[in-house]
Amino acid sequence: MNKQKNQLATSLKLPKFANEDAEATWWASAKGRKFLKRQSAARTAEPRKGSALVNKLGRASSVQIALRLPAPDLANAREIAERKGIGYQTFLKMLVHEGLRREARR
Prior knowledge:
Layout: H1 2-11, H2 20-28, H3 30-45, H4 52-59, H5 71-84, H6 88-105
Helix pairs in contact: 4-6, 5-6
């Protein structure tokens, strides 16, 4: 497995290009597409980083709903989420999850 991991790591190194035209040609080639596929596969093989709650919410099956929020609340959620480095929808899911858990304990 280490051999496969090392081989994958070395295959993910971007080559040096003489100019932008050479780089564009490479990205459009089969080698460039193969590079992107390997890079994507390597990312999905890596363990997820960040909050355990965010990871848990990401794995849980979800149902799409429509929820109307006052514009100032949504703007506030977006600002806070940006400061935390997460998406605002993920942040809102975390808040709902925490609120439901708190109410269930009452």
